[in-house]
Amino acid sequence: MVYIAAYGPARPEELAEMRRRDVDVEVPGVWVRRAAPELTTGRRAVGDTKSEAGKRFIVLPAFLAKELRRHLDWYAEKGPDGLLFVGERGKPFRRSTFGRKWRRARDKVGMPEGFRFYDLRHTGHTLATRSGATLRDTMVRAGQSSEKAALIYQHSDRERQREVAAGIDAHVRVMRNKINPSGARVVRES
């Protein structure tokens, strides 16, 4: 669940309604076809995704193929319509129960106290853009229909700014060498 939320980035209500048939271990990836947000009453409201853009196939990083296979073998409900993620006693997971488990796991791996499960969507967007994804790419991956929504989830830190500057530096050096292959002018200007 954490992997698909972080590397997808899928919404919690989309994860709650994923079925075994939604998983493709060969690509690897998952289909988001429906959602099941948990209402304040505790009832799950199974239905359509947040928008039409939410219906999508999320291609996941190749290293997750093994994890998807294991999850299907060990944890998912049996049968093609079996839930991919189940809670205690084999029932659909509950926000309250999951929240307690999330906080314990988060603390165990040393993540900040205020880091919410939903923050993994921010992680997913940021990882996608750092890998070179365009704004449209991140919108498709996250099932968003507006640029404004997509931009809320993208972050840039000092490390990323160094990577951007290094990329610009490398590009300019290549262009300078094309202008003056001997490098004489480049040395004088440095």
Automatic annotation (TrEMBL):
<dbReference type="InterPro" id="IPR002104">
    <property type="entry name" value="Integrase_catalytic"/>
</dbReference>
<keyword id="KW-0233">DNA recombination</keyword>
<dbReference type="InterPro" id="IPR013762">
    <property type="entry name" value="Integrase-like_cat_sf"/>
</dbReference>
<protein>
    <submittedName>
        <fullName>Phage integrase family protein</fullName>
    </submittedName>
</protein>
<dbReference type="Pfam" id="PF00589">
    <property type="entry name" value="Phage_integrase"/>
</dbReference>
<dbReference type="GO" id="GO:0003677">
    <property type="term" value="F:DNA binding"/>
</dbReference>
<feature type="domain" description="Tyr recombinase">
    <location>
        <begin position="1"/>
        <end position="166"/>
    </location>
</feature>
<dbReference type="InterPro" id="IPR011010">
    <property type="entry name" value="DNA_brk_join_enz"/>
</dbReference>
<dbReference type="GO" id="GO:0015074">
    <property type="term" value="P:DNA integration"/>
</dbReference>
<dbReference type="InterPro" id="IPR050090">
    <property type="entry name" value="Tyrosine_recombinase_XerCD"/>
</dbReference>
<dbReference type="GO" id="GO:0006310">
    <property type="term" value="P:DNA recombination"/>
</dbReference>
